[in-house]
Amino acid sequence: MSLLSTIADAILCSSERVLRLVVEGSSLKRGKSPKWLENALNLEITGISKGSTVLNINAPTFQESMPDYFSQKKLWKPKLIPDDTAISLFSKSISDIVKGNLESDLYDYNVLQSLNSFRNILKKHASELNIISSQKRADNCKIGGDEIARIGEIKVKIPESRTVALSGFFNMIEHDHRRFQLKVNNEQSVDGYLDPKFIDIEDMRPLWGKKVTVKGKALFKPSGKIHSVEVQKVRAFEAGDEILGNVAQTQGQFKFSEEFIRNQNAQAALKKVWGKWPGEESMDEILEALSPEIN
């Protein structure tokens, strides 16, 4: 019973986070869960045999659990497939992780954290856990030692979320999930989600199709590119905002390490003269002496 509960919690938590990431742009949210999420996670155990290690689970399709998502006309292609389920997304997320797809929209740091909870299950009770779909072979997946190791490798690559300011054209609003797109100067599109604590989506109507500047918390993919921005402030574009129109890839670990080493070398060079100046040497002479070590 304890093991069954642990496995069920791990599957439910991981599936919920992947689904929220796809629909809402963030895998972890506070407050009461929306009804569509509860419906999609309404999984039923339909069979278990004595002595068997197979658990039969029925999961509703998104067409069944989230009909409004597909019935309303959208300005862009829906991110969900009608006959997929929450467990389908769970499986696809693991597949992208194993393939090393660093541009995937199906996992972030919090999704990886929940998938990592399978580590203790495998350590104590089984060598691997298989999810097998009776209808869609593409939804099959395995979680074992190799998959857990891969999860750990990718998790350390994801940059921490941070506040950013971006400028671009305010494009394609989706009212249901407070989602929009921001077209920036380098032809990239950034998904934005309006934070209801700070912004009323109805106040955004006059800005639709116009150039704006937004500020909010950016969430990143393992590749270092922005996955989405939880926007807390929006205003009309102003002169001087041009510098905010390019979406740069955040610093990777290697680049950061290079800069850290370079800064350490510069500091080591400065220690040679720290506390020994002023003296008779001119500033030009000091800089000339230091430049080879700093560079």
The strands making up the biggest β-sheet line up spatially as 5-6-7-9-8
> Can you tell me the residue ranges where pLDDT is under 50 for at least 5 consecutive residues?
248-261, 273-277
Taking all Cα atoms into account, the compactness measure Rg is 25 Å
Derived structural class: alpha+beta
One letter per element, helices H and strands E, the order comes to HHEEHHHHHEEHEEEEEHH
What's the total count of β strands?
Answer: 9
The largest sheet, given as strand count, sense and whether it forms a barrel, is:
5 strands, mixed, barrel
Number of helices: 10
- Report the sheet-strand fraction: 15-25%
Outline the structure in words.
With 295 residues, this protein is of the alpha+beta class. It folds into 3 domains: 154 residues, no CATH class; 83 residues, OB fold (Dihydrolipoamide Acetyltransferase, E2P) (Beta Barrel), CATH 2.40.50.140; 42 residues. The protein has a 5-stranded mixed barrel. A two-stranded antiparallel ribbon has the order 1-2. Strands 3-4 form a two-stranded antiparallel ribbon. β1 and β2 form a beta hairpin. About 6% of the residues have low confidence.
